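Reposting from the mailing list since nobody answered there.

I have sequence plus structure tokens for a pair of proteins and want to know whether others read the tokens the same way I do. The first protein:
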Amino acid sequence: MRIVNRFLLVLCLGMLMRCPALAQPYGVSGGNNLMPASGGMGGTSVARPQDFLSAINFNPSALTQYEGTQFTLAGTWAEPTFNLDQNAAIPSLGVTPFNAKSSAPGILAPNIGVFQQMEVNGHDMHVGLALISASGLGTNFLHMPQSGSASSYLLVLEVAPSVGFQLTDDLAVGAGVFLGTAFLEGPYVARSAMTNDYALRANVGLDYDMSDETNLGFFWKTRQNFTFHNQEVLVPGTAGNDIHLGLPEQFGIGIANTSLVDGRLLLAADVLYFMWDTADFWKNQYRNQWILQLGMQYELNDHIKIRAGYDFAENPIDDNVGTTGTPDQNAAAKYTQAQFGVINENRFTFGVGAADVLPGLDFDFFAGGMPRVSHNFGPDTLVNLESYWIGAGLTWRFSDMYYIERR
């Protein structure tokens, strides 16, 4: 166990040092856009996920759609471009006008999990365990002396055991627990240190078969708040201040249908709601956020599937931040808020799935992008952000009983 803990720590630290704005987060919270199959379908996965990792992360009751034993190893490479244009000095932060691109490099984000169907006291259980890249964000302007040593890094990894039960022929329930480990540095490295913390969150879900072709899914995920002790040092030589920061309470509902093209066309839609007012720190940066995810999968034959998706996510930036203080205080608040400006509303994805590329081995590929957009943080701070990502996953199936139900 000690060796495993050290391995996870090294993995976290290694990712943290390379973590820019995570490919496609909603605010700073990730969805299922980086999962091997859902990633090609705009993250749609609440009602009928096409990989069990997505069920663990959103709706654990959907684990009942799988049988046998599986292991998935998936990863995504993301390359965001974050530009900041600061047009006025901020004396309290030591900032003078500059225009620059964040020097934070690309990121490799892993998602790994195992699924097992078992019987306990005569009851059928569908159990999953995953390591999930739940949140990540980072900007780095240390190469610009005018930036006031602005550099921000956040990483949250979750270990998530989950279980699903089939209560009736039509209704399934599920629950999961997320143990998150989080690392935070910044937003001004001259005044902060990298610190970490651990926190729990719970997840429950329902899945209901409305007919042989249509089913409905729902999940609720609790908030997850971390405390980073002595993270911010305002005056050198004094004790640091604690920073409270978290991930929001989340709700999601989804529908999926396979009534068209002889059951070979899967159409899915999810509506998500992220309650940023429940998340420490972000409740002072973001507004609550609605998200619409649309996805499709077309089976060319028994082995090849083509996927596509589109997401619309409300821009969560709260423009009321930095409007009630002195001019310097307002400018400092806007400049700090800009470091976490995930402002993109539109996301486009594409994917391909191949079953049995080798006996018992499936391969999934996906890619996506957030086109470039701009946002003004007050009169003097402008952010431009775009991001593109590419990912793949391998799933090993260790039982001939395995299947994804084609209802």
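The second protein, same order (residues first, tokens after):
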Amino acid sequence: MENMNKAIVLLSGGLDSVVSLAVIRETCSEVICLTFNYGQKSYLAEKKASEIISKYYKTEHKIIDLDWLSIISTSSLTTNETIPYISKENLNNISIAQNSAKSVWVPNRNGLFVNIAACFAESYNFNTIVFGANKEEGTTFKDNSIQFVNAINSSLENSTNTNIKLIAPLINMTKEEIVKLAIQKEVPLELIHSCYISEEKHCGFCESCQRLKRALELNNRKDIIDKIFEQD
């Protein structure tokens, strides 16, 4: 099929979405990246990172505004509630990780993003949607799981008139493995923004930061840590 090499990528500017873009860019002649503004505290930093990354990979980039989502959400990502900090030692503590996930959960966020991407895919005659779901976060975020991917694909069979598929290239990988892949593919890790807040550098304390920092440490990339994280 002529549109097999065209993809819509959900790009937040964070590790997983950027590495997913790098992977899919190798086989796609045309890519459109979508970045969503749903009132998240990290939006300005995500927007900046996504714009730079899109230019780096020579892809079209669109911002989708979803202001209403922040109005109905009670997530600590979109309200005045404090975003939970989690220590590196507790990242594998399922109970603590689940509490962190509950705090930052935005209602049906990934489901909404994928369906918006499907509107673009069907309109532009693309057949692939790409997002950065991964094994590590799939343990606490059910919309990062293979079950989510399969369920969405079943739904897309009936909600679209074209053969659109959602894929998650990193679905069976941990953060450590994702960073290793990023290094192999020479992904510009110094340009990403994975933090839950929108400062110039990563805070280093939220769950997303802690997972990224641990993965970088395990891959002996202190140079990247020094560049993108606030130093103690």
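Reply #1 (J.P.):
I read it the same way you do. The beta strands are 6-10, 30-37, 60-65, 128-130, 165-167.
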